[in-house]
Write a structure and sequence with these properties.
By secondary structure, the chain is mostly helical. The chain has three domains: 129 residues, Alpha Horseshoe (MgtE N-terminal fold); 112 residues, CBS-domain (Roll); 174 residues, SLC41 divalent cation transporters, integral membrane domain (Tetracycline Repressor, domain 2, Orthogonal Bundle). It is built from 23 helices and seven strands. Strand 2 and strand 3 form a beta hairpin. Helix 8 packs across helix 10 and helix 17 packs parallel to helix 22. The longest helix has 31 residues.
Length: 461
């Protein structure tokens, strides 16, 4: 009779993915989960990423849904979604039902709509309907970040009744992040909150309404991420209740969920500035998928650079007559671009904090134009002086310095306005501002240098 090979713990490799592979081959599911469970989340993510797609599937086939869910919680949403996506819908549904509601929604949001719906169709109908409702909220709002695992009771309940409910449902509540108990009226509107120790000392016959903290702090379901961050900076709470338009409680947002969302947004913005389109990229993803994500950005940059280079073609005779200008062309465009990116960063920050709105174009233009003039003149004098000292030609310094001053004004003003304009038209400022600004500053920089030089070409030759 065939038997599964026995895993020899004495020959553990320094590469954890090799040990996981050996445990999979040995068919030892208990030892497999025990080994993975003692690894850090970073080690777990790295080890699983080194397994082949076939062995990743075998790994999750061997684990119980509860054990598989614990592993899923240790890896990034993108990596987890790829793993879940490769499993049969029935198995994927069983694993996802073990996750907290916010994590479940995050994973489904990373999948194609068709795949997500296939999994939802095999989940418990109540859990699936709740997940669909949560998925309708934008990811960076209280609705998109909240969890549904909270405890609320009617105001007329007594402490004895609440304690009895906690005892009878202790297994169901064991995985809840319970720090507060919420009190609702007959229409499930939030009217009060209790801390855990508030249940310990009053008489058992006391009603929740008589001991609750009235008018509790709460946030609307559409509250944005920065509003949530500011709330938890001001109030050191373990969670905040979320209510809908009727004042009914629909969930709880935890401070750790807000911090995680902020980190993810920072990563997305960094990837966008770096030219990675479509979210996170891992080297374990399919080659064509990764190539397409990068080419979509690089192809756009080819077009934008051709536009900027066309300005040089228009003035090639000027450039040929005063070849020294070629030294200063990249300097003018680069320094102006740096100034413009500073303005972009300030506008992005003020937009995220709610300090400026997309329709405040005139205010931002006025503020940045004044700063652009001041910095443009300072940088223009500096670079013009360098050009004069190098070649001893004051007209060369005038052309270079004047071009840098003019281009800095354009770059700073445009850099301040671009994020607002893009936000107003529902485009991603973090992704689009940089290439547009770079193209404009290159094009204008070349234009200013070469057009100024053409006007006084005899004095430059």
């Amino acid at each position: 009779m065939d038997t599964a090979p026995i895993f020899d713990a004495s020959v553990l490799s320094e590469r954890p993915w090799e040990n996981i592979q050996a445990l999979i081959d040995a068919g030892d599911s208990v030892e497999l989960f025990s080994y993975i469970d003692q690894m850090s989340p970073t080690e777990t993510a790295r080890a699983i990423s080194r397994l082949s797609a076939e062995n990743q599937g075998r790994l999750f086939q061997m684990l119980t849904p509860s054990d598989a869910a614990e592993i899923i919680e240790d890896i990034s949403d993108v990596q987890a979604a790829d793993l879940i996506d490769d499993l049969p819908p029935e198995q994927a549904a069983a694993i996802l039902e073990e996750l907290d509601s916010d994590h479940l929604v995050d994973l489904l949001g990373e999948m194609d709509e068709e795949d997500a719906e296939a999994i939802l169709g095999r989940m418990n109908p109540e859990d699936a309907e709740e997940a669909r409702q949560f998925m309708a909220y934008p990811a960076d709002t209280a609705g998109g970040l909240m969890i549904s695992e909270f405890l609320s009771f009617p105001a007329d309940r007594t402490i004895a009744e609440v304690l009895k409910d906690l005892q009878e449902n202790r297994e169901a509540y064991a995985d809840y992040n319970v720090q507060y108990f919420y009190v609702t009226d007959n229409e499930e509107r939030l009217i009060g909150v209790l801390r855990m120790h508030d249940l310990l000392f009053p008489k058992r016959s006391a009603t929740l309404e008589s001991i609750m903290i009235r008018n509790p702090l709460k946030l609307a379901v559409e509250s944005r991420l920065d509003e949530l961050r500011e709330f938890f900076e001001e109030h050191e709470l373990f969670g905040v209740p979320v209510v809908d338009g009727d004042g009914c409680m629909v969930g709880v947002v935890l401070p750790e969920s807000v911090e995680e969302a902020r980190r993810e947004r920072t990563v997305r913005q960094f990837l966008g500035f770096s030219g990675i389109i479509g979210g996170e990229e891992f080297r374990t993803m399919p080659l064509l998928n990764r190539s397409g994500r990068r080419l979509s950005w690089l192809s756009l940059n080819i077009v934008l650079n051709i536009i900027a280079a066309s300005v040089i073609a228009l003035y090639q005779d000027t450039l040929a007559a005063a070849i020294t200008l070629a030294v200063f062309l990249p300097m003018v465009s680069d320094m102006s671009g740096c100034s413009g990116n500073q303005a972009v960063a300030v506008s992005m920050r003020e937009l995220s904090l709610g300090l400026v709105r997309p329709n405040e174009l005139l205010r931002v233009m006025r503020k940045e134009a004044v700063l652009g003039i001041l910095n443009g003149l300072a940088l223009g004098v500096l670079l013009g002086g360098v050009a004069y000292l190098w070649k001893g030609n004051p007209f060369l310094g005038l052309v270079v310095g004047g071009a840098l001053a003019a281009n800095t004004i354009v770059a700073v003003t445009l850099g301040g306005l671009l994020p607002l304009i893009l936000k107003r038209y529902k485009m991603d400022p973090a992704l689009v501002s940089a290439p547009l600004l770079t193209t404009v500053t290159d094009m204008c920089g070349f234009f200013f240098v070469l057009s100024f030089a053409s006007a006084i070409l005899p004095r430059l030759a």
